[in-house]
Write a structure and sequence with these properties.
single chain, 440 residues, alpha+beta, Heat Shock Protein 90, 3 domains, three-stranded antiparallel beta sheet, 8 strands, 66% helix, 11% strand, elongated
Length: 440
């Protein structure tokens, strides 16, 4: 006779640790409070307990059917209570189900090997082994498995996530086929344990390789964006230097002609033709080169990148207003500063270009408050925004997060700062805060 209480406890231990591991990576994305979520999960748990407690006799096939039925119910609850896309949830659910399945198979093997005369349905020995497996599973899962999985979850590669779940699904189907065999001799055999261990090791290796590949791919994409911005900066600097050289030539010519102008001024003064003198001075001033249009801020690297986009916007009839307080010496690398400014202003310029009506404008502001550098870019736009899981999607990258925004977020994180986006029907704002303290 099977012990229904122990069977219910064993089934609970087969599910609870891995349910915790499913929710662990998304603990900040829950739709319900912790208490409400536990109350919701307790409903199928209590129902399963009552089924095993009152339904007799219990067969191995019955236990398997009930287990997979409630596994489906738990998955549906999982989908309904976490604010994450289906592929990511499905991947983590299958990953932890595979992990739990391997621990259960190992528990079955140990129970039958050491206690061959005990039943492995509701027995004391199996419950003890399952309890030990559960105690081991949680810290191992949090510290080892989810360390790579969490890094993988930060990626927004839609194409990759569309097929990534296939890997744990294949392992899951193999585990199901192994678990459905009710044969103690098979469970006690070496091929059984070898297959189980191979599944565990193989799953970890596959997870590691796939995670590393996708993370490196994402890093390469970000690096390409940084290189693109660096090349653009070089082009902008060359253009700026050419303009500056041309302006220096103009200034030299103006200085050369200065004595002629002084002679004319002196003549007007002697003849007391003050009105003619005023007109002459006005014409002379208008012919002088205006240095203000070349210097938007003291920081030369930031000045070059911002100046390029200001000129591009002006050529397209887009109003640009700048208020930049960036000293030449600042505790941020020129490359990082240019990536933040370049990407934010470039996105603003593209948003203005997509507008079909209404005033087009871009406002760029920066200021240092204590140890914090603040950069704010406001721009008009057409009011169309695509957001997924708090990340703004690019229209150029098939609704994936834009590389420019990703680069800005990465640099904000590098300097222990923030990069926030806000918008209403007419205006989009990007606010970046970078910490200038070196002791962080």
């Amino acid at each position: 006779m099977n012990n229904p209480l122990l069977l219910s406890l064993g089934t609970f231990l087969d599910v609870a640790p891995y349910a915790f591991l499913c929710y662990f990576p998304f603990r900040d994305k829950l739709k319900l409070s912790g208490k409400k979520l536990l109350a919701l999960l307790s409903v199928p748990a209590i129902t399963e307990f009552l089924i095993f407690y009152f339904y007799q006799p219990i067969t191995y096939q019955f236990v398997q059917c009930i287990f997979f039925l409630f596994l489906t119910i738990y998955f549906l609850i999982y989908l309904a209570t976490v604010r994450v896309t289906f592929p990511k949830l499905f991947y983590i659910f299958l990953l932890n189900t595979d992990y739990g399945g391997i621990m259960i198979l190992i528990s079955n093997y140990l129970e039958i090997s050491f206690f061959p005369n005990h039943t492995h349905i509701g027995g004391y020995s199996l419950t003890v082994f399952t309890l030990v497996a559960s105690v081991i599973a949680i810290p191992l899962g949090v510290n080892v498995i989810h360390k790579k999985a969490t890094a993988l979850l930060s990626l927004e590669n839609t194409k990759a996530w569309g097929s990534l779940w296939v890997v744990p699904l294949m392992f899951f189907l193999i585990l199901v086929s192994m678990a459905c065999v009710d044969n103690d001799a098979w469970v006690r055999s070496w091929p059984y344990i070898i297959m189980t261990v191979t599944m565990a090791v193989g799953g970890c290796v596959v997870l590691y390789m796939v995670s590393k590949m996708l993370i490196e791919t994402d890093k390469n994409a970000t690096l390409r964006e940084d290189v693109r911005m660096f090349k653009m900066q070089l082009v902008f600097q060359k253009s700026a230097y050419e303009k500056l050289s041309s302006r220096i030539t103009e200034i030299k010519a103006a200085r050369h002609d200065l004595r002629h102008h002084l002679s004319v001024i002196e003549t007007y003064l002697q003849l007391k033709k003050y009105d003619d003198l005023q007109r002459y001075l006005d014409e002379y001033k208008s012919s002088l080169p205006d240095n203000r249009e070349f210097f938007l801020c003291e920081n030369s690297a930031a000045n070059v990148i911002v100046l390029h986009y200001v000129e591009a916007a002006a050529n397209e009839g887009i109003f640009v207003k700048t208020s930049l307080h960036l000293p030449q010496k600042i505790k941020i690398s020129d490359m990082d500063l240019c990536i933040v400014l370049g990407n934010c202003i470039e996105n603003a310029l593209e948003a203005c270009r997509r507008m079909e009506s209404g005033p087009k404008y871009i406002h760029v502001k920066s200021k240092i408050h204590g140890d914090i550098l603040g950069i704010v870019v406001d721009n008009s736009f057409d009011g169309k925004v695509e957001v997924r899981n708090g990340k703004f999607l690019s229209r150029k990258r098939n609704n994936e997060e834009g590389l420019g925004i990703a680069s800005v977020r990465a640099i904000a994180a590098k300097y222990r700062g923030t990069a926030l986006c806000r918008y209403d029907e007419k205006e989009f704002r990007v606010s970046v805060m970078l910490n200038l303290r070196e002791d962080l």
